[in-house]
Design goal:
single chain, 95 residues, Alpha-Beta Plaits, 4 strands, globular
């Protein structure tokens, strides 16, 4: 069970690999007061994929604002970046 002080979310990044991709996403999260709790990334045939578990409890703003900022960054970097609250992610992936 998740601690009430934590508001976890899952962020996914998918696109062609490029220098500075992790740094740019992590920088935006840091500027927003978001802590990265866990990160997994891999590159397969130049296709970059990353999944991050983040804590939104000290975030500046709300998840809608964050989603917009991440989507804008994704357009700039020509990758897909999505954020989803962990509770919704868990519910969607339960059988």
């Amino acid at each position: 069970m998740q601690d009430k002080g934590h508001q976890d979310a899952v962020i996914t990044v998918v696109g062609h690999d490029q220098v500075g991709l992790i740094a740019r996403v992590a920088g935006l999260l840091a500027e927003s007061g978001i802590n990265i709790k866990d990160i997994s990334q891999t590159i397969m045939n130049d296709m970059f994929t990353m999944i991050m578990m983040v804590d939104l409890s000290r975030m500046n703003g709300d998840i809608r604002q964050l989603a917009g900022q991440l989507e804008a960054l994704g357009r700039t970097l020509e990758v897909s970046i999505r954020v989803q609250h962990a509770d919704i992610f868990d519910a969607m992936h339960r059988i």
